[in-house]
Amino acid sequence: MALLPTRQPIAFSRQNKTGRYLRPARDNKKHSIVEDIIATFHTRLLQAFPVDYPEDLQITKHGCDECEQVANDFLGQRWDLLPRTVLDNNFDKLPLFTLEALQYFLPAYLRAALAEPESDVAEFLSYMLAPSGLPAKFIPHFTTAQRRMVVEYLDLTASDPEFQDKTWHKTRRRWLPNE
Predict the structure, then answer these.
(1) I need a labelling partner for 141 at 20 to 30 A (CA). Which of 12, 28, 32, 159 fits?
(2) pTM (whole model) above 0.70
(3) Which domain holds residue 148?
């Protein structure tokens, strides 16, 4: 489901190596539209993902030093109130999460990546969502509404059809195979 009634590319001011535009344009009208899209996306995330911190949530898969640090950073944190610094410091730690922790904290990463598309969080999230990233066996554990939010994120970050390459289409189909 699109946030806008018509499919219009979001204006961004710079391109990365693949040519995808990255930073919201500084035109006040366009910047306001981007802010509105992010706010609407956040509201929809709140509807699709529970915000109450799960009781007995095991955050990481094992107890190595790196996993313990990640677990300490996220322990007791609600995804919707998670400080941006926690995500920035752990932009590449999603593979260490248990399925339950990934399902709980993914919306924080989605929101942060949409708000700052040229951040490390956004870049690593794109790898994690792609077919070569998250193991396929995890995806069915997400509800349909949660998988739709991932696809909506993909649609918003690749709004220009020129940049909707084979990987984007495969990633999109991976999260919503029947649509």
Answers:
(1) 159
(2) yes
(3) 28-175
